[in-house]
């Protein structure tokens, strides 16, 4: 029983990380129809600079940890905004060029990070409570899992409220449905779309800081590894569906954890099989709109 509970808690924590990355991908594609392969770079840079800020203020203190979250999310938002303004905006409706540019940016950024921080992982420390465990149903669960799950839930709630309850959220949704009409009303849709990129980048930067604590290190490959699973989650959940991304994140992470433990480390293979099955049965994803 304790093993099951531990796998469940670990899977939920990993699913929360997948969601933080996939939420930005799903949001950006669903509202702007842009596949951003550089999204993992936002995560990695947020993790590195967030932890650098924590070290400046004492990485083992809560103040340093909170500063790393703010810096990580802020860095992700700024870099995502610059990416949209300088690289994506001139290429709207030119999807192949978007893919080439974002893939190129992803590869170049990894090389840049390796040049600055080296190729070896940098093991990190955090507040003592995060490194301790809480016993639940006989299982010793790392406390950072609870924090990651809680923050991911808050991000989901905040994005939903933003899109449904705020003026900019309504502008964004209206701009997606009929951009020409919204522009004719004197509303700058481009600014709203830039804001979408910033929100996605902030979620990725936050995810980078939390991923560093989940895995215990930061490295130039951190974002790329999570991005692969985030894309799988986005496709399974349905491109553009935030709810689908949340459900798929939990499902994929749990399937991965249980398969790794009970099926000899075959978690990644099982996830690929699940992706193939979903695409065969429902090509639009679990909650995506059929073409």
TrEMBL record:
| Organism per entry | Nocardioides seonyuensis
According to its UniProt record, where is this protein located?
Answer: Cell membrane
User: Per the record, a Pfam family?
Assistant: BPD_transp_2
Q: Which GO terms describe its biological process?
A: amino acid transport
**Spans traversing the lipid bilayer:** 6-27, 34-54, 60-87, 99-117, 146-163, 191-215, 227-254, 261-281
Provide the family line. Answer: Belongs to the binding-protein-dependent transport system permease family. LivHM subfamily.
Q: Is Transmembrane among the key words of this record? A: yes
Q: Which UniProt keywords apply?
A: Amino-acid transport, Cell membrane, Membrane, Transmembrane, Transmembrane helix, Transport
What InterPro entries is this protein classified in?
A: ABC_transp_permease (IPR001851), BCAA_transport_permease (IPR052157)
A GO MF term: transmembrane transporter activity
Q: Which domain of life is it from?
A: Bacteria
Q: Provide the membrane topology annotation.
A: Multi-pass membrane protein
Name it.
Branched-chain amino acid ABC transporter permease
List cellular component terms (GO). Answer: plasma membrane
């Amino acid at each position: 029983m304790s093993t099951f509970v531990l796998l469940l808690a670990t899977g939920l924590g990993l699913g929360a990380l997948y969601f933080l990355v996939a939420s930005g991908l799903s949001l950006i594609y669903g509202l702007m129809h842009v596949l951003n392969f550089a999204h993992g770079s936002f995560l990695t840079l947020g993790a590195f600079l967030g932890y650098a800020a924590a070290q400046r203020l004492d990485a083992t203190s809560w103040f340093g940890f909170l500063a790393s979250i703010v810096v990580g999310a802020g860095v992700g938002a700024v870099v995502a905004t610059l990416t949209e303004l300088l690289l994506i905006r001139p290429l709207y409706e030119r999807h192949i060029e978007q893919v080439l540019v974002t893939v190129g940016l992803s590869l170049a950024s990894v090389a840049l990070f390796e040049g600055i921080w080296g190729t070896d992982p940098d093991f990190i420390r955090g507040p003592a409570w995060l490194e301790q465990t809480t016993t639940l149903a006989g299982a010793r669960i790392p406390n950072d899992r609870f924090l990651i799950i809680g923050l991911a839930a808050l991000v989901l709630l905040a994005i939903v409220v933003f899109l449904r309850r705020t003026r900019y959220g309504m502008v964004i949704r209206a701009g997606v449905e009929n951009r020409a009409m919204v522009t004719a009303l004197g509303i700058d849709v481009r600014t709203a779309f830039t804001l979408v990129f910033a929100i996605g980048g902030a979620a990725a930067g936050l995810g980078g800081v939390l991923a560093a604590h989940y895995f215990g290190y930061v490295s130039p490959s951190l974002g790329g590894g999570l991005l692969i699973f985030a894309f799988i989650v986005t496709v399974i959940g349905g491109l553009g569906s935030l709810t689908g991304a949340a459900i798929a994140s939990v499902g994929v992470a749990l399937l991965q954890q249980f398969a790794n433990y009970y099926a000899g480390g075959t978690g990644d293979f099982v996830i690929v099989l699940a992706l193939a099955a979903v695409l065969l049965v429902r090509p639009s994803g679990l909650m995506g709109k059929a073409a």
